[in-house]
Amino acid sequence: MDMNIYAPLSLLLLTTTLSSASVNNVDVLKLPDISAWEKKVFSGVTSYELVNVDYRHVLKAVSNQSASGLVRKIEVDLNKTPYMYWSWKVDSILNNIDETIKSGDDYAARVYVVISDDIFFWQTRALSYVWASKQSKGSRWPNAFTDKATMIAVESGEKLVGEWVE
Question: What is the pTM of this model?
Answer without folding.
Answer: 0.77
